Fold Glycoside hydrolase.
Amino acid sequence: MQNIFIRCCTALAILAGALPVFSLPGPTNKLATRQDSNRYVMAHFMVGIVENYTVDNWIEDMELAKDIGIDAFALNCASIDSYTDEQLAFAYEAAAQVDFKVFISFDFAYWSNGDTARITSIMQNYTTHPGQFQYNGAALVSTFVGDSFNWAPVKSAVEHPIFAVPNIQDPAWSGTATTSIDGAFSWYAWPTDGGNSIIPGPMTTIWDDRFIQNLGDKIYMAPVSPWFSTHFNTKNWVFICEDLITVRWEQMLEMQPELIEIISWNDYGESHYIGPYSASHSDDGSSQWTEDFPHDAWRIISKPYIAAYKAGDRTPTVESDQLVYWYRPTPKGVTCSKDPLGPPNGINLLSDRIFVATLLTEPATLTVTSGSQDSVSVEVDAGIVTTNFTMGVGVQSFSVVRNGEEILGGDGGLDIQDSCDYYNFNAYVGSF
Ligand SMILES: *[C@@H]1O[C@H](CO)[C@@H](O)[C@H](O)[C@H]1NC(C)=O
Ligand SMILES: *[C@@H]1O[C@H](CO)[C@@H](O)[C@H](O)[C@H]1NC(C)=O
Ligand SMILES: *[C@@H]1O[C@H](CO)[C@@H](O)[C@H](O)[C@H]1NC(C)=O
C-alpha cells in the first residue's frame, strides 16, 4: 500500500539538539525601510503530486486560495519528475488567467548545488511572466532546504531582478550567508527544538525571533501551519499542534513578518493541507489518513487572520457568526489492530481534547457534547476564540446560543471511535 517514494518534505536533519543561546530582539520595525510595504501570504503547493493537472484544475485551486486572500502559490517542484516543466507552465498560465501569482520553490531534497544551469533556465523563462510573483520589483524564488545554493550566478545570468528567499535551517547562518540571498524562509512551523525533534506545545516564536534578529535588513518569510502528522514506514510522527492554527495566526498578527507562507495547500502526506482533497493527485499512501478528512474549514479561520495581517491589525475582524471544529478520530491510547507500523512518535505529548474556534460578531454561549462526556457550556467573546473540550467516544455535537436562540450548531461529521485498523492522527475539520 505504501509507496516508498514519499512526496515531500520535512526532512530537516542539520539542527538536531541545542542551539546557541542569544538574547532575543525587541519588537522589530523593519517595514518602514522596505520599498514594498505590502504584506503577502503564500501557500506551499506540491507540484510533484499533480502530474495530470489541467490548467482548469490549477484555476480551481487558485480561485479557492484567492478567496481567502492568499496571493501566490509556492510551487514546490522536484528535478526528477518528467512532468515538472509542463505543470510549471500550466500553473503560470492559470495564474495569469485569473490574476493570481506563483513562484518556484525548488525542493532540494531533489535539486542540488550543481543544478545552477537548469535553475537559471527555468528562472529565465518565468521571471517576467504575468503569473510570476514579484517582490520589490524582483521575481521571488524560494526553496525547501537548499540552504547553501548560491543564487549569485543565477541572478547575474537572468536579466530581470530575482529576490531569493530560500528555506534556511540555521538562523545564525542566514545572517552571514554569502550566497546572495535576500531573505530567509523558515520551515519551523511546529513546536520543535530543531531537526525534527518533537517537543510539547504550544508553539512559541523562538525560531522566528532568531531569524529576525540574524537577518538584519533581509526579509523574513514566516511559516504558518495548522497541523502535522505523518504515518509512513520511513516517517512516522506527529508534531504537537492541537490549536496551532489560531495560536500561530495570533503570533503573526503580533510579529507582522514581511511575508508569510502557509504550509501547506496540498501536502496530504504530512496532513497540513488547507486546500480541498483534490481528485486528480497521485497517492503515495497518504490517502489512508487523508481521504474523508476534510480541512477546508481551516480556510474559514485563515481568511479573517490573513485580512488582519495585511491590514496591520492585531485582531481579526469577524463579519458573520461561524463555528469551526477539529478533532482526531480516536483517543491516543487506542491500539489499531491491523497497523504494521505502530503508533507515530510524539503522540504521548498530545492531549485527548477536541477544538472549537468560534468566529462571533457578539458574545454567545458555546455548548459541546463530546461523545460520552457530559455537556460543557462556556461563555465566549466576540472575535475568534479557540476553546477545547475533553474528548469522548461517540457523536460530537456543537451548539452556539445567543439571547436564548441557537444561532449555530449540529453534529460533527465524524464520530470518535475507540477502535481502529490503522493509526490516524490527522484532524477531521468541519464547520457550521
Ligand atoms: C518555458 O516556458 C514554456 C511555457 O511558457 C514551457 O513550455 C517550457 O517548458 C519552459 N521551459 C523551461 C526550461 O522552464
Ligand atoms: C495520470 O495519467 C496517466 C495516463 O493516463 C495515468 O497512467 C496515471 O495513473 C495518472 N495519474 C494520476 C495521479 O491520476
Ligand atoms: C485547553 O484550554 C485551556 C484553557 O484555555 C488551556 O490552558 C490549554 O492549554 C488548552 N489545551 C490545549 C491542548 O490546547
Summary: The longest helix spans residues 84-98. The chain is about 20% helix and 25% strand. Residues 85, 89, 121-122, 125 surround 2-acetamido-2-deoxy-beta-D-glucopyranose (ligand 1) (CB under 6 Å).
